[in-house]
């Protein structure tokens, strides 16, 4: 598992804090419990030693000399009996009495003879100094006995007429370390199990997150490689589902744009090929006429070449207008003036066909790019003029509807055939011989850039294109 993968990072995020928490709690808890239990044991041992010391006569203790244990003197036997009773009653491992020089006067549970020095006392010099000063104390260090168990020693002073003449030492087993060690092992096992469960949860969570993310990554890579046809699968998780939907919308937009671009390129190639062929033909005829000296035919061919060149120029201009992302230069525009100016640009063409363009515009103020909207309206009115039969009017009506300004361009032409209605806004789709097929797509692009929409309804004798635009903010609706 790579460290930069989501699974590894989630696993570390789950386990490291938990491991630190359990480790800290376990260590601190164990140390605190051991310290408390050691203190309690030390206090108990020193209390037993103090109770024993209160029964020991310092004067008689000092009369015990080396060899008394061999001879079994009465004083030594009495002291030994007392210490044995204490050891049996308290369950201690060893109880012994020493003088201020650290020499044994009686040892029950041990094997040191009277007069011998106790090696363990060297370990507890600090505690013994307190005892010989009149206080009771317990050893700070646990030691291991011959049986492998841990032990601790409690001390209490033996007095004679108020002066400290010796000390009673009581060795007790730290029996609490058995349960404490078992508790520590149990805690360790529980911690390991908890970590294993968290690791399993982390892995499952990481897989649950990584799989949909990997699918999204694969979809993004496919799109990056140019595969725009394979859809992005939906995801059930809310957050990842939003990403999948957005990526699918992006893929659909790219696919639509790619398809549109291919159509545009094919349309440009098709539309340019025809006039180029005409120019080639007429230029050849022109060259022959010039050789023969026929100026009339030559002039006719020149006119045709000029018309084809003009058509090529219009194709290029329409293509650039449609393909270029033109920034909007918004400014307040009076709706009646916008409609009138667009219709005036087509007055000559309409009169040539014997068609009257009628304008009815309710007053309203638009926040728009006047020149671009004029171009869009010119395309709509021009199509209506070309579609209308001679003598029939074209009506351009503008009015406020539901807080927006609606512009309707109506003609009484044959209408749009049913099979062509779905393709009417496709670039380069046209039914006219010299049409570029970019007028309606360009008009809708301009309208949508203004936050509006362009739609149409068509029946034989009645076709209406409706252009809706938002009103200027603050203007009456």
Automatic annotation (TrEMBL):
Its recorded reaction(s) are:
ATP + protein L-histidine = ADP + protein N-phospho-L-histidine
The record places domain HAMP at 207-259
Q: Which domain of life is it from?
A: Bacteria
> Which InterPro entries has this protein been placed in?
HAMP_dom, HATPase_C_sf, HATPase_dom, His_kinase_dom, HisK_dim/P_dom, HisK_dim/P_sf, Sensor-like_sf, Sig_transdc_His_kin-like_C
Instruction: Write out the annotated subcellular location.
Output: Cell membrane
Q: Which PROSITE patterns match?
A: HAMP (PS50885), HIS_KIN (PS50109)
Name of the protein: histidine kinase
Record the organism. Hyalangium rubrum
């Amino acid at each position: 598992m790579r460290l930069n993968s989501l699974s590894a990072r989630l696993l570390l995020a789950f386990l490291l804090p938990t491991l630190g928490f359990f480790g800290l709690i376990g260590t601190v808890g164990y140390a605190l419990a051991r310290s408390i239990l050691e203190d309690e044991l030390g206090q108990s041992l020193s209390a037993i030693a103090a109770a024993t010391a209160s029964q020991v006569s310092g004067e008689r203790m000092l009369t015990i000399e080396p060899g008394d244990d061999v001879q079994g003197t009465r004083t030594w036997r009495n002291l030994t009996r007392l210490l044995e009773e204490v050891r049996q009653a308290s369950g201690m491992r060893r109880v012994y009495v020493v003088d201020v020089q650290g020499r044994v006067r009686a040892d029950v549970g041990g094997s040191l003879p009277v007069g011998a020095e106790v090696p363990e006392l060297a370990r507890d010099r600090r505690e013994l100094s307190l005892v010989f000063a009149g206080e009771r104390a317990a050893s700070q260090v646990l030691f291991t006995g011959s049986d492998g168990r841990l032990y601790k020693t409690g001390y209490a002073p033996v007095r004679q007429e108020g002066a400290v003449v010796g000390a009673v030492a009581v060795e007790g087993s730290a029996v609490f370390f058995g349960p404490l060690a078992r508790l520590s092992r149990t805690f360790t096992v529980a911690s390991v199990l908890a970590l294993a469960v968290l690791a399993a949860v982390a892995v499952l969570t990481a897989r649950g997150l990584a799989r949909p993310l990997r699918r999204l990554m694969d979809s993004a890579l496919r799109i990056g490689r140019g595969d725009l046809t394979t859809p992005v699968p939906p995801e059930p998780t809310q957050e990842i589902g939003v990403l999948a939907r957005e990526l699918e919308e992006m893929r659909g937009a790219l696919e639509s744009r790619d398809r549109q671009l291919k159509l545009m390129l094919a349309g440009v190639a098709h539309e340019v090929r025809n006039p180029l062929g005409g120019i080639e033909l007429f230029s050849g005829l022109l060259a022959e006429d010039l050789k023969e000296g026929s100026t009339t035919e030559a002039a006719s061919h020149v006119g045709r070449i000029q018309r084809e060149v003009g058509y090529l120029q219009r194709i290029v201009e329409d293509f650039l207008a449609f393909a270029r992302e033109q920034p909007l230069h918004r400014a307040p525009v009076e709706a009646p003036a916008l409609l009138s100016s667009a219709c005036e640009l087509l007055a000559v063409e309409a009169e040539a066909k014997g068609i009257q363009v009628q304008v009815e515009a309710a007053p309203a103020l638009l926040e728009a790019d006047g020149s671009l909207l004029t171009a869009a309206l010119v395309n709509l009115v021009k199509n209506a003029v070309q579609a209308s039969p001679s003598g029939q009017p074209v009506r351009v009506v503008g009015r406020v509807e539901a807080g927006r300004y609606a512009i309707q361009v109506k003609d009484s032409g044959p209408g749009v055939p049913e099979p062509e209605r779905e393709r009417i806004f496709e670039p380069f789709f046209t039914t006219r011989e010299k049409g570029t097929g970019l007028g309606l797509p360009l008009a809708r692009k301009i309208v949508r850039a203004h936050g509006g929409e362009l739609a149409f309804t068509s029946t034989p004798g009645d076709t209406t294109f409706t252009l809706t635009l938002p009103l200027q903010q603050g203007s009456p609706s």
